[in-house]
Specification:
The complex is a heterodimer of chains A (342) and B (314).
Chain A lengths: L67 H26 L3 H24 L19 H25 L3 H27 L4 H4 L5 H20 L6 H25 L4 H4 L1 H23 L4 H31 L1 H15 L1
Chain B lengths: L5 H4 L10 E6 L8 H10 L25 E8 L17 H6 L23 E8 L7 H5 L5 E3 L5 E3 L10 H4 L6 E2 L6 E2 L5 H4 L6 H5 L5 E5 H17 L6 E3 L12 E5 L19 H23 L11
Parallel strand pairs in B: 1-10
Antiparallel strand pairs in B: 1-8, 2-3, 4-5, 6-7, 9-10
Chain lengths: 342, 314
């Protein structure tokens, strides 16, 4: 009963033969030493190894029903769109028309894909407009839906005006509007997953917004490196560098602060994805700066950065699933909290 | 301790009915699962798996979209107050019993009625789990459509004609109660029989419970009754007895459906110290705002160097 069965829905135990013996006294879990997590290098044990109990190793929480491709994809595309819009406005205002056009076009395509992924993941996609029935500040998904409802048309207007060359003034307004909402579009998805009982997501609520906006900036920079002519790509490179730095720093901070609950970010599928993200990020940044005179090298580095951002979103998503599937991540921190209160 | 009235906080006027709830006294639960059956029948809940799990007598596994009552079974090597568990069979001659014609050859028998179990302490805990109808309900807080709502009885109910199956409530619940039905696409959970209690009936599970392990009533009354029951049990030597979810000062503001347990909550698959995730939402929004501002700033800064190097169109 550890993270490896986590992402499978529906319940893998349904219909499957049991992998446990029905022996008296073993059931409660008290009598066997289990769920002792390995201490990581250098980490000093602050408390003695906790005795951990669960109900037959079953998770306390119901695992998120979200499909990884849909929801992590929605985080990635939403971030790419939002950060691209911010970059587009900056490029517009500083006379980088090529970069601006690529960013605007990328933003409108990405936000379209983000919304499509979001709707596709609904249990009742035909009811997606119910998202706009109410405005609930207590629901990040409600606020996010309204953000997207405002941002989508602005991003579309900005791109259309640029591509057709008509309605320049309205296009400029739309570009600025999309740039104002874009960063929020890129950041709010962190609140969506933090505002759950999933230990790895909830406990990381301080750092996740920075991981997400950093990842978004990396992606938008990467797209800029692909679409912009080399003499305009400096801004994209700068944004990617800032994003990569912010993301790597935020992940480090998260890792240090979370302790046991941070384990799912280091292990299993999530750990592999996040390591891949790190490697791609560094490769992309180094490639972008070394090959800044070469369009193909810049584009290749941009692709690596886009891949890094996607891997990072999928990694964070998988870490949440793994932490929800193992009761130790729910029970042990709560036990420690109770012990701290006494 | 004064209790927040969730119905009033949700906008009902002071004249609304009393807050109703469940007190599930697991010390008298006999594991008959009548509550599970009654709930399925009354609410017309579809079948959700017919398995043998090996988890004692629990083949229901846990709460979900199509399981709104779940009876947990825990077998422990612990004493049950002053009672004799009756599992000492050292004086029984198994071979003689087998020779008399027991079905399984002694060598092949695991633990059957004719083979002695391990002697010593044994207790069998049973507990009927259900939606807690939290005072501060995360599922309700995060629902983006307003499908989940607070009733005049202070309970939390899904409106199935509104739910678009976004699935946000599922990971928001700190107890793993609500879930999405795969073939139906919408989220489902216990309604505390909203369609019965409005007519003065008790919920189906409580009505079916033969031992009154599940008690339904105004929450204030239930809390008093539960406190007395814990005292009685302690006097009878059941020192393990404790209440779970009755404290309005806990992380979810207290439960509308609370429990008397005989061991730590996690033994029953319940979180020992749940908090409503939205308690930290203001802090989350603050971090989101900072991160968004940071992104806007980074985009602006990245564009500054080289400004005017090329002539823009506008």
């Amino acid at each position: 009963m550890s993270g490896d069965t986590a992402p499978d829905r529906p319940d893998p135990n349904r219909g499957a033969p049991p992998d446990r013996d029905a022996l008296t006294g073993v059931a409660a879990g008290r009598d066997r030493p289990r769920a002792r997590h390995r201490r990581k290098r250098g980490e000093q044990p602050m408390v003695p190894e906790a005795e951990f109990t669960s109900y037959y190793g079953r998770p306390v929480l119901n695992s998120p029903v979200w499909d990884a491709r849909d929801v992590a994809g929605y985080f990635f595309f939403g971030g790419l769109a939002g950060a691209s819009s911010a970059l587009a406005a900056g490029a517009d205002l500083t006379g980088r028309p090529g970069l601006a056009r690529g960013a605007k076009t990328g933003a409108v395509c990405a936000v379209g894909l983000a919304v499509a992924a979001l709707v596709h993941d609904l249990g009742r996609p035909e009811r997606f407009l119910n998202m706009l029935r109410v405005i609930k500040p207590s629901s990040p998904l409600s606020i996010g839906s309204w953000l997207l409802a405002g941002y989508g048309p602005l991003a579309t207007g900005a791109a259309l005006a640029d591509l057709t060359g008509r309605f320049r003034r309205l296009g400029r307004l739309a570009t600025l509007g999309a740039a104002a909402l874009g960063p929020a579009v890129a950041a709010y998805t962190a609140a969506v997953i933090s505002d759950t009982a999933v230990p790895a997501w909830h406990e990381a609520y301080r750092e996740l917004p920075f991981v997400f906006t950093g990842s978004a900036a990396t992606a938008a920079g990467g797209l800029g490196l692909i679409t912009a002519p080399t003499r305009e790509a400096g801004a994209a490179r700068g944004l990617a560098l800032a994003g990569a730095g912010a993301e790597l720093a935020a992940v480090r901070l998260m890792d240090r602060r979370l302790g046991l609950v941070g384990e799912p970010y280091r292990t299993g599928r999530a750990g592999r994805l996040l390591r891949a993200a790190e490697i791609l990020t560094v490769t992309g940044i180094v490639g972008a700066f070394l090959g800044h005179r070469s369009r193909p090298l810049s584009a290749l580095s941009g692709a690596a950065l886009l891949g890094a951002s996607a891997a990072s979103r999928f990694g964070v998503f998988q870490a949440g699933l793994a932490s929800a599937a193992d009761p130790k991540y729910t029970v042990q921190p709560q036990r420690e909290r109770l012990a701290g209160k006494e | 301790m004064t209790t927040a009235d969730p119905a009033v906080e949700s906008g009902y006027h002071q004249g609304h009915p009393a807050r109703m709830g469940f007190f599930t006294d697991t010390s008298v639960c006999i594991g008959c699962k009548a509550c599970e059956v009654a709930c399925k029948e009354w609410n017309a809940i579809p079948e959700d798996g017919l398995n043998l799990t090996g988890m004692s007598y629990d083949n229901t596994v846990g709460l979900g979209a199509s399981t709104w009552r779940h009876v947990a079974f825990i077998e422990q090597r612990k004493p049950i107050a002053r009672q004799d568990p009756g599992v000492s069979h050292e004086d029984v001659d198994v071979l003689a019993l087998a020779a008399q014609g027991a079905a399984t050859a002694p060598g092949e028998a695991g633990m059957t009625p004719t083979t002695p179990g391990e002697p010593g302490d044994l207790r069998w805990l049973m507990a009927s789990d259900v939606c807690k109808h939290c005072t501060h309900a995360a599922c309700l807080d995060v629902c983006p459509t307003g499908s989940l709502f607070r009733t005049e009885f202070g309970t939390v109910v899904v409106q199935e004609d509104i739910c678009n199956g976004c699935g946000y409530c599922v990971p928001a619940c700190p107890y793993g109660v609500i879930d999405r039905r795969p073939d139906d696409g919408r989220a489902w959970k216990c309604t505390l029989c909203y369609d019965r209690i409005g007519d003065g009936l008790e919920p189906a599970c409580a009505q079916a419970c033969p031992t009154d392990s599940i008690q339904y009533g105004p929450l204030d009354e239930l809390r008093e009754r539960a406190a007395r029951r814990v005292e009685t049990l302690h006097e009878a030597g059941v020192t393990d007895a404790r209440l779970y979810g009755e404290d309005p000062g806990d992380g979810v503001g207290g439960n509308g459906a609370f429990f008397l347990l005989l061991d730590e909550p996690e033994v029953y698959g319940l979180p020992p110290d749940p908090i409503v995730t939205t308690r930290d939402l203001p802090a989350m929004w603050r971090q989101v705002a900072l991160a968004a501002a940071g992104l806007a700033g980074a985009a602006a800064l990245a564009c500054l160097p080289g400004r005017g190097r090329t002539r823009g169109r506008s």
